[in-house]
């Protein structure tokens, strides 16, 4: 860290508000403390995880110190002989699900819909609240509550297809209204979510680009053919050529081109469109495609899109396959004509993002978990934790339970049950199951499942997982954006790369505030990129930076970045920041490198092993689709459960 704390506006402000319950914001700092150390000392843990805001997720912001420490103990082999140290509980379930994210809840929900009360299921989740990457944060600001996602935020397109079916089944609305843009000094377009405006250029937000202290702010650079963007003429020419590519690229010996929709269809699961063209794209990085096929210089393109791709595929163009880039509708590889994408805002988000989906599935399986069946309670209300794990429930959800070992009780081909051992409050317990769905990431599944076939384990070892930090910053007002005439900001250097105001969803005729004079939540997605290094080095280095930086240092970076960008427009970090919640995700995204989707000529992709499962164990998580979405999680979790029941 450069810069002394005293230089950062507000860093010496003593913060003692209700929204900071769950953590202590001490100015002394805790540079370099790792989660394992943090977990051993409650006060350090508080300072590493930081304040958690209020509500259901107050003690479950991102991967907390206690959860990260338990995972590191699994990694270090501490539980290899766990069976010898079991404290108790030997219940038998039809299904045990490891992980209470969207995929895990979908697996439990599949059993619930197939068998109703006739199927006994236990979901084991290591955090203090379920939801995984689909959880939320709330902060109270001067008596008003503002919300944001901890991770997954965007849903849609509106309620068509599978999404519509799920909404209907879970009693979620089929139509939505959002608060009207506020009475600012001028009309602003405000997006319904955090991602749609960033790259695809749907005109759903009034966008400004901050180009550093020398050049300041410009409008959307694409509006004037990049004229105002203070980059070199070569970089701008490259960007324009790339962006305006008509597609139509083909490989020798392969029929069809990348812009022919018949060759590359918009498949439900991307990896299902197994064509020679798809395999060709999956055989190279997008960087190589841009350089060798599109004949563009990739460096400016990387600068523009790497943060965005890292926020969806875990890494930049040097790491992700050209097929992965196609899923993200990148120029040259996608049949989707992004330039004609409509201004219509058909992607949207709930106040706490996709937290709604695991909550809705829990409500369907355990109605007593919520006070009533209304949408407001589901979105904002308190989950009754005491109802989640009652003996009489057909589906039980057990929180604060880290699964450390899963093994068949006998040979996988003949065993009738699987033992699942988990750690809770420092003690080990065992349950048995007729089937187990591993609805957690492969990075930990491969260390937990003791009798996993060696080729499965090897395949998974080849995958890399990238971390991300999601910082939710509650501000007392956003007049500084209003003065700039923007609702969404992008920048290229410093902390994060983008943030924006969202139109809050109307629920029962009311919404969270939407006025420049009222508080709002600004969400920053912060990848830790180091383009050019091998992907293994990039992801490990990024994780070290995420884990070794204290709350205090991240707070300084946030204050400095916001003050630099908005200070001249009426923002004062000391006065205007009301609260910060950090969500650290150690293994946020699998990186779909070349070969991720279709493997190589002599080896199937790792995900093919995972989808096969073995014995009484099935694997299902969003990562198996390469581009992680809540729908992918739902599909993979459901598929895994149906394999077993
Ligand atoms: C920053 C970010 C932004 C995103 N934005 C979007 C978006 O806008 N829209 C979208 O659709 N998707 C988005 N996603 C993708 C997200 O991955 C999926 O939407 C979905 O939430 C993943 O669900 P999952 O169940 O597969 O995995 P997870 O959410 O990771 O759930 C796995 C669960 O298992 C738990 N677990 C792990 N190990 C153990 C263990 N040993 N014992 C017990 N429990 C364990 C984990 O703590 C976790 O709760 C985003 C992801 C991130 C990180």
Beta percentage is 15-25%
Shape: globular
Count up the helices: 21
Helix content: 25-40%
Instruction: Report how far apart the termini are.
Output: 53 Å
Give the number of domains. Answer: 3
Radius of gyration (Å): 24 Å
Give the biggest sheet. 8 strands, mixed
Low-confidence stretches: 1-5, 14-33
Bound molecules: flavin-adenine dinucleotide
Secondary structural class: alpha/beta
Number of DSSP E strands: 17
Mean pLDDT: 89
What brief labels describe this structure?
single chain; 645 residues; alpha/beta; 8-stranded mixed beta sheet; 4-stranded mixed beta sheet; disordered N terminus; binds flavin-adenine dinucleotide
Element layout with pairings:
Elements: H1 35-40, H2 42-49, H3 65-75, E1 86-88, E2 92-98, H4 102-115, E3 121-124, E4 136-141, E5 144-149, H5 161-170, E6 207-210, H6 212-215, E7 217-219, H7 233-243, H8 276-282, H9 286-293, H10 298-310, H11 322-327, H12 356-365, H13 375-380, E8 395-398, E9 402-408, E10 418-424, E11 427-438, H14 442-448, H15 454-461, E12 465-475, H16 479-484, E13 488-491, E14 498-500, E15 520-526, H17 535-548, H18 551-566, H19 573-576, E16 577-590, H20 606-612, E17 617-619, H21 630-644
Parallel strand pairs: 1-11, 2-3, 2-11, 3-8, 6-13, 11-17
Antiparallel strand pairs: 4-5, 6-7, 9-10, 10-11, 12-15, 12-16, 13-14
Helix pairs in contact: 4-12, 4-21, 7-10, 14-15, 15-20
Flavin-adenine dinucleotide binds near residues 99, 125 and 588.
């Amino acid at each position: 860290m450069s810069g002394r704390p005293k230089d950062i506006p507000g860093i010496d402000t003593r913060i003692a508000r209700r929204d900071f319950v769950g953590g202590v914001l001490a100015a002394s700092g805790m540079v370099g403390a790792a989660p394992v150390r943090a977990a051993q000392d409650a006060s350090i843990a508080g300072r590493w995880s930081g304040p958690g805001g209020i509500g259901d997720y107050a003690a479950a912001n991102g991967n907390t110190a206690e959860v990260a420490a338990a995972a590191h103990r699994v990694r270090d082999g501490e539980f290899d002989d766990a069976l010898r140290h079991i404290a108790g509980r030997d219940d038998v379930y039809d299904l045990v699900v490891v992980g209470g994210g969207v995929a895990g809840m979908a697996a439990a929900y599949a059993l619930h819909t197939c068998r109703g009360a006739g199927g006994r299921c236990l979901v084991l989740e290591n955090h203090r609240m379920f939801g995984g990457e689909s959880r939320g944060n709330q902060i109270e600001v001067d008596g008003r509550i503002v919300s944001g996602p901890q991770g997954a935020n965007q849903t849609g397109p509106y309620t068509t297809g599978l999404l519509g079916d799920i909404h209907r089944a879970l009693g979620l609305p089929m139509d939505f209204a959002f608060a009207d843009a506020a009475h600012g000094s001028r009309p602003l377009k405000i997006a319904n979510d955090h991602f749609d405006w960033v790259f695809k250029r749907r005109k759903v937000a009034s966008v400004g680009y901050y180009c550093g202290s020398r050049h300041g702010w410009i409008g959307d650079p694409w509006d004037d053919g990049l004229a105002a963007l203070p980059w070199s003429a070569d970089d701008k020419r490259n960007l324009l050529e790339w962006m305006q590519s008509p597609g139509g690229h083909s490989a020798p010996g392969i029929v069809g081109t990348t812009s022919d929709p018949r060759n590359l269809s918009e498949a439900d699961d991307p990896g299902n469109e197994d064509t020679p063209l798809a395999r060709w794209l999956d055989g190279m990085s997008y960087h190589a495609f841009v350089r060798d096929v599109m004949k563009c210089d990739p460096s400016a393109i990387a600068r523009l899109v790497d943060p965005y791709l890292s926020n969806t595929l875990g890494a930049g163009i040097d790491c992700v396959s050209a097929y992965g880039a196609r899923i993200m509708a990148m120029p040259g590889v996608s049949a989707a004509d992004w330039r004609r994408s409509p201004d219509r805002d058909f992607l949207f988000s709930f106040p706490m993002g996709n937290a709604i989906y695991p909550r809705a599935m829990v409500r369907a399986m355990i109605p007593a978990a919520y006070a009533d069946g209304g949408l407001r309670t589901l979105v904002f209300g308190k989950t009754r934790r005491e109802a989640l794990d009652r003996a009489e429930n057909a589906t039980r959800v057990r929180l604060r339970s880290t699964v450390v070992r899963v093994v068949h009780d006998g040979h996988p081909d003949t065993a009738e049950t699987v033992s699942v051992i988990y750690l809770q409050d420092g003690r080990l317990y065992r349950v048995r199951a007729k089937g187990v769905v591993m609805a957690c990431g492969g990075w930990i599944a491969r260390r937990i499942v003791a009798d996993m076939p060696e080729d499965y384990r090897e395949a998974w070892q080849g995958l890399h997982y990238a971390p991300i930090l999601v910082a939710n910053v509650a501000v007392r007002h956003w007049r500084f954006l209003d003065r700039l005439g923007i609702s969404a900001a992008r920048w290229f250097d410093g902390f994060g790369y983008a943030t924006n105001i969202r139109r809050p969803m109307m629920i029962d005729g009311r919404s969270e505030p939407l006025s420049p004079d009222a508080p709002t939540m600004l969400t920053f997605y912060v990848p830790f990129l180091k383009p050019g290094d091998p992907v293994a080095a990039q992801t490990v280095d990024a994780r070290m930076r995420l884990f070794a930086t204290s709350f205090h240092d991240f707070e300084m970076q946030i204050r400095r970045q916001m003050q630099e960008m908005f200070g001249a427009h009426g923002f004062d970090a000391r006065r205007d920041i009301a609260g910060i919640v950090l969500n650290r995700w150690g293994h946020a995204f699998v990186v779909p490198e070349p070969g991720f989707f279709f493997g190589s000529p002599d080896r199937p992709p790792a995900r093919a092993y995972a989808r096969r499962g073995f014995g009484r164990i099935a694997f299902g998580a969003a990562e198996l689709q390469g581009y992680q979405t809540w729908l992918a999680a739902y599909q993979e979790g459901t598929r895994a459960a149906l394999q077993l029941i």
